[in-house]
Amino acid sequence: MQVISTGSRALDALLLGGVRRGLLYCVFGASGSGKTQLCMQLALNSAMASKSARVFIVDVKGDFRPERIIDIYKARMDGGEGKVGEGGRSKHGNNTHMNSRDGGSGYNADINAIIGIMDRIYVQRAYHVDDIFSSLSYVDSMYERYDHGVSFLIVEDSPSLFRLEYGSKSAEGHLRLMRLMHDLALRAVLRNTAVIVTNGVASSARDEHEGVDATTVTGLDEEEVRERQIMDRSVSMFAHFKVRLERLSSRMKDEEGMRAIVDGSVFRATLLQPLVKSNKALFKIVERGIVDI
To answer: What are the residues whose beta carbons fall under 8 Å from the beta carbon of 14, sequence distance 6 or more?
Structure first.
């Protein structure tokens, strides 16, 4: 079973080695929690791992930026450590240069490498729920066109589109979302594809139990209720892994309280499914992508 590294040893360990082909992952969190950055990092790592790799991204929000993937690659080649600000762009702007220590030939080699990598990453915009299902039909055709099919499939923020079109309480909306998750799980297992579905958070427990104390109904504490993902039950029932991402405050201490971390780009991942003893990992997002603290 092939594994895609996240770029962070701590996060890889949390995911039991990394993101594995043949499994469906649900990654959710508030805006700015690192979901898109994680997916772009994984897309790049998957495309770099093999010339036969194919990465397909269904982009609902329009957040995927080819230039950010290229920036991660160039910064990695240069050994860049600059911090990334809001929206995933380097705080140093777009001044990252390609590694040209070998002169023009090195520059051309980098250009050719970038073109080769980006040719293996496909992005299709989805504006409606039907667009998502149409995208999956195109993915199926890629299994026929390429010997190794699609190695990595990302469906970004699809539950929010279902909620927008159907509402959070619509039986039809939940049934169609469950069908999507079921189809993605089948593609992961039968096609040996790593599949990630990203999702936002909302007070979904309050949406579903309006006028009732959500902590009493769900058995969750207040923090978990706030961080519950959109249309949670319809998404989670088919996921092999369920991960919550959070952006931490600019100054925090680790769990042992032994050292202070002063960095606004510190993130925490919590593995909610499957249940493991050590279910949290800290990481940073810098110019060259996701790294360990």
So the answer is: 243, 269, 271, 278, 279, 280, 281
Tell me the whole-structure pTM to 2 decimals. Answer: 0.80
Which residues does residue 155 pair with via DSSP β-bridges, in sequence order?
A: 58, 197
- Concatenate the DSSP letters of all residues of 67-86 into one string: HHHHHHHHHHHHT---BB-G
| Residue keyed to tokens 């079109």 | 165
Q: How many domains, in total, are found in the chain? A: 1
Q: How does pLDDT run across 35-70, given as a tens digit for each residue?
A: 999 999 999 999 998 888 899 999 998 888 888 899
Strands 24-29 and 266-273: unpaired
Q: What's the helix, strand, coil split of the chain in %, to 5? A: 40, 25, 35
Rounded-to-10 torsion of CA 224, 227, 229, 234: 10
Strand partners, 244: 28, 270
CATH number assigned to the domain comprising residue 165: 3.40.50.300
Range of the domain at 53: 3-291
Which residues in the chain belong to E strands, given as ranges?
3-4, 19-20, 24-29, 55-59, 121-125, 152-156, 194-199, 241-247, 251-253, 260-262, 266-273, 280-286, 289-291
- Residues 225 and 214 sit within 8 Å (Cβ to Cβ): yes
Kindly provide the residue ranges of all beta strands, DSSP E only, lying in 34-104, ordered along the sequence.
Answer: 55-59
Which residues of the chain fall below pLDDT 70?
1, 80-109, 203-227, 249-264
Cβ-contact 44, 117 below 8 angstroms: yes
Say which amino acid occupies 212: V
Q: Is the dihedral of CA 37, 43, 47, 48 positive or negative?
A: positive
Q: Which of 151, 70, 75, 78 is nearest to 113 (CA)?
A: 70
